[in-house]
UniProtKB/TrEMBL annotation:
Gene: SNX7
The entry's keywords: Protein transport, Transport
Domain of life per record: Eukaryota
Main location: membrane
Species name: Galeopterus variegatus
Keyword Protein transport listed: yes
Organism lineage string: Eukaryota, Metazoa, Chordata, Craniata, Vertebrata
Membrane topology (UniProt): Peripheral membrane protein
PX domain residues: 30-151
Subunit structure: Heterodimer; heterodimerizes with SNX4.
Subcellular location: Early endosome membrane
Protein name (database record): Sorting nexin-7
Similarity remark: Belongs to the sorting nexin family.
Length: 364
């Protein structure tokens, strides 16, 4: 794979460090640091929910202070994602973890689930912070700095229900018409996304299955080892006792090595693969929004062809829509290359780290 850029979110390993060498001489331009930690449970008469502490440190002049601390719940993250999509319809917004977990994985509000979500929310905010355009979004700044009542007030300032419904109706009408002449480069992009989605979903399922099988193997070994200790206690022949204890010790070592490998799977591989499953869904949405903008332009051009009245008004609308389509296309093209490079870095690094974990496992 082409390794032209280095994502700051990329997990490091001895092999992946090779790819960072050429970046050592470049200055560190990062000026926004975000941490998501300290999940806290809240119980009201209506609902139970978790809030997360968000600490932001920055040297940017547009912020009133250099450090902020706020608490946010999952709904607030959803609001931020929606505002980013609204403001930048053809930029690739980082995905949020799902609201509801897959049945059979873990219970909601279970410690493991909360920790997994915390890490995903941390990644979500830092990916926005590292994005050259999204990082300067005003709603993102409000999300990081406003107190709960200020955020609630800011949310109410958005467009009214009727305005949002009008936008939705227009978008649905455009998507129903479809795009007659999607540019070749976006056809290639669409085909790439479909193939990528199939492959990453398959990798996600296989990875989850491997983890489940490792977990079952680990649980059985934990019960298996002590049996040899009990057996050795009932034997009188010293040589047999030593042999049985040796087997128990061997199983214990295998148990610890398996636990370490499971930890590598759950921390290094599974989150990365699943994030890109969610990214593939996001990309489908981005392509659909781009097509809607173009479909709206196509419909106006078609109306101008068959309609003699209001030609001046239609011509003016077409001019504005042509600019809108051009901006949308350019934004998506620029973000697409950036996303592909980050994706290649992230997935290559995750696979490399997992390969190293497996080597260490079999050595042990």
């Amino acid at each position: 794979m082409d390794m032209n850029s280095f994502s700051p979110m990329m997990p490091t390993s001895p092999l992946s460090m090779i790819n960072q060498v050429k970046f050592e001489d470049e200055p560190d331009l990062k000026d926004l640091f975000i941490t998501v930690d300290e999940p806290e449970s809240h119980v009201t008469t209506i609902e139970t929910f978790i809030t997360y502490r968000i600490i932001t440190k920055t040297s940017r002049g547009e912020f009133d202070s250099s450090e902020f601390e706020v608490r946010r719940r999952y709904q607030d993250f959803l609001w931020l994602k929606g505002k980013l999509e609204e403001a930048h319809p053809t930029l690739i917004i980082p995905p949020l973890p799902e609201k509801f977990i897959v049945k059979g994985m873990v219970e909601r509000f279970n410690d493991d689930f909360i920790e997994t979500r915390r890490k995903a929310l941390h990644t979500f905010l830092n990916r926005i912070a590292d994005h050259p355009t999204l990082t300067f979004n005003e709603d993102f700044k409000v999300f990081l700095t406003a107190q709960a009542w200020e955020l609630s007030s800011h949310k109410k300032q958005g467009p009214g229900l009727l305005s949002r419904m009008g936008q939705t109706v227009r978008a649905v009408a455009s998507s129903m018409r479809g795009v007659k002449n999607r540019p070749e480069e976006f056809m290639e992009m669409h085909n790439f996304i479909e193939t990528f989605s199939q492959k990453i979903n398959l990798i996600d399922k296989i990875s989850q299955r491997i983890y489940k099988e490792e977990r079952e193997y680990f649980d059985e070994m934990k019960e298996y080892g002590p049996i040899y200790i009990l057996w050795s206690a009932s034997e009188e022949e010293l040589e047999l006792v030593d042999t049985l204890k040796g087997v128990a010790s061997c199983i214990d070592k295998c148990c610890k090595a398996t636990e370490k490998r499971m930890s590598g799977l759950s921390e290094a591989l599974l989150p990365v693969v699943h994030e890109y499953v969610l990214y593939s869904e996001m990309l489908m949405g981005v392509m659909k929004r781009r097509d809607q903008i173009q479909a709206e332009l196509d419909s106006k051009v078609e109306a101008l062809t068959y309609k003699k009245a209001d030609i001046d008004l239609l011509t003016e609308e077409i001019g504005k829509l042509e600019d809108k389509v051009e901006c949308a296309n350019n934004a998506l093209k620029a973000d697409w290359e950036r996303w592909k490079q980050n994706m290649q870095n992230d997935i290559k690094s995750a696979f490399t780290d997992m390969a190293e974990e497996n080597i260490h496992y079999y050595e042990q």
